[in-house]
Write the structure tokens for this entry.
Amino acid sequence: MKNIMKSLAAIAIVTLISCGGKEEKKEDSIQIGQKPATETPVEESAASSTKASETIDLTNKGIGPIKSLELASTIDQAMAAKGMEVYKTKCMACHKPDKKFVGPAPTGIFERRTPEWIMNMILNPEEMTQKDPLAKALLMEFNGSPMANQGLTEEEARQVLEYFRTL
């Protein structure tokens, strides 16, 4: 009888320990599962609070043929008119002047980017999205939709840039 009582006591103790251990593991797995869930939104919200389209970088000239560009103090209206026509035919499918669409809106672009960066993005979008950190971030912000190379000449890109100055 003493052996049966000892055996039952041992089984009870083993059962309690094994049940208790599972509960602790369950709690640990919940805590572990919750920590990344807690950390991830913080990282995402920090990244989303500084969107690439809102980032100001007036030193980056981008990657491409334009190394230096000086803009006149006044807007060349004839050039801007030509640029508006190029923009309407080549760019407007993805870019609306004053709101986000497939790509960012060009309104206010000179407050965030250098003229060289803008021209290089127009003329060399493939290399820009591969090598320029800001262009890469824009690509991610706009769901991986790359800017199409429209094959514009430097003169056409400069006209579009002048049009952007009127927005």
Summary: The CA atoms of residues 89 and 147 lie 15 Å apart.
